[in-house]
Request: fold
Amino acid sequence: MTQPYDPSKDGAEMNFKDRMSYGDYLSLDSLLNAQNTWTDTHDEMLFIIQHQTSELWMRLAIHETNAARACLLDGKTRQAFKMLSRLSRIFEQLNSAWDVLRTMTPSDYTAFRDALGQSSGFQSHQYRQIEFMLGNRNQAMLKPHSHRPELVALLEDELAQPSMYDVALRALSQSFPLPDEVLNRPLSETHQPHPAVQAAWSEVYRDTETHWELYELAEKLVDLEDYFRRWRFNHVTTVERVIGFKRGTGGTGGVSYLKRMLAVELFPELWHLRTEL
Ligand code: HEM
Ligand SMILES: N[C@@H](CC(=O)c1ccccc1NC=O)C(=O)O
Reply:
């Protein structure tokens, strides 16, 4: 009979008494001890892991968005492209995750929904930070965090910085002078569509040879918003499938609130220009 294979004979390390192991490097003890269920229903574990993994991907999305924005500000546009591509892939990952959650029926969910109290994704500070970073800025969204001043400070800090779109518009303004009200708008508010911005982006799309970098930047942003829209759509569809038109635990109208959010445009002129090309 052949002996079972022993990888240590081929050099695999088996002793981690004073060495960094896989679990040490990844802090797996903290990570895998954070799935605290509040009921003994079967699907609560799925619900928690779905949200925790989404929050982890959002953490990376924030990291990549910050880096992409810094590169663009620094004129390192090509480097920013790599991060923007990765950002879209992260959203793709978040989008695929809905397929797992969709297996949870209304009966499965109502078994533990009461345990959630008034908690809701509406209070996700990382999600709000991503919205703020990309340019969807609404100071009213700071309020659910008022019991955590450090989170309010983090979000306020974000509102004081130019958004991803602001930085793209600064890059655009190097080739097409843009009005002061566009370049020096109040940063804590959402950018409002402006005809001069649309005219400039339209010119980029009409003469791609001359403006190739800006054209590529525009398409990376459209890609990103496309994936983000799919996330919103997957969310609202899953919510309707699971709770119908009930009010949300966070207190909003639920599906009606989420449908309203489907109308958000992060990079409006990049969508509007397509009609006139
Ligand atoms: C069965 C699953 C889910 C249901 C029934 C659900 C339901 C809702 C509802 C009703 C809202 C509106 C706010 C409220 O009044 O509560 C909301 C908001 C939100 N949910 Fe979910 N959700 C689910 C899964 C998820 C997942 C997996 C995530 C991923 C992190 C998520 C993230 C969010 C975020 C970020 C918001 C705020 C959206 C915004 O302000 O535009 N939700 N959810
Ligand atoms: N708003 C949801 C609850 C909910 O989905 C939720 C609750 C706690 C932690 C994350 C959640 N996910 C997304 O909103 C509901 O009304 O059922």
User: Anything to note?
Assistant: The chain has a mean pLDDT of 97. Residues 180 and 211 are 22 Å apart (CA to CA).
